[in-house]
Design goal:
By secondary structure, the chain is mainly β. It has 1 helix and 7 strands, in the order βββββββα. It has a 7-stranded antiparallel sheet with strand order 4-3-2-1-7-6-5, with helices on one face. The longest helix has 10 residues.
Length: about 110
């Protein structure tokens, strides 16, 4: 797998292995990969799928984030200004909240 590429003048704030929930038929299915939060964008790359990023959202396009519980897991959802929602679970969920708040992303 190719290493995550930072843009010029971009700094990595945090990263970690998480699962993103994507629509599959009538339900959502988790896909494991890596999330990257930088001072310019939020990105996610599914581990088993080569090629481009599966989510590449500039900070100015993020409306906010929300937190909920899924069974015993914390779920963090990033909401875009265009109405797309990206839900994540995994060990770094609490860290993800902190990274987003550090960048001034509003908790909804």
């Amino acid at each position: 797998m190719a290493k995550f590429q930072l843009n010029p003048e971009e700094t990595l704030i945090g990263s970690g292995m998480m699962s993103i929930y994507l629509k599959q038929g009538l339900s959502k299915k988790p896909f494991q990969g890596n999330i990257y939060i930088t001072n310019q964008r939020a990105c996610f790359k599914i581990s088993m799928m080569p090629g481009t990023l599966d989510m590449d959202l500039p900070l100015e396009d993020i409306r906010g984030f929300s937190v909920s519980g899924v069974a015993i897991f914390t779920q963090v959802t990033i909401h875009s200004r265009t109405g797309e929602n990206y839900s994540f679970t995994g060990f770094p969920a609490k860290k993800l909240r902190g990274w987003l708040m550090q960048l001034g992303v509003q908790k909804l």
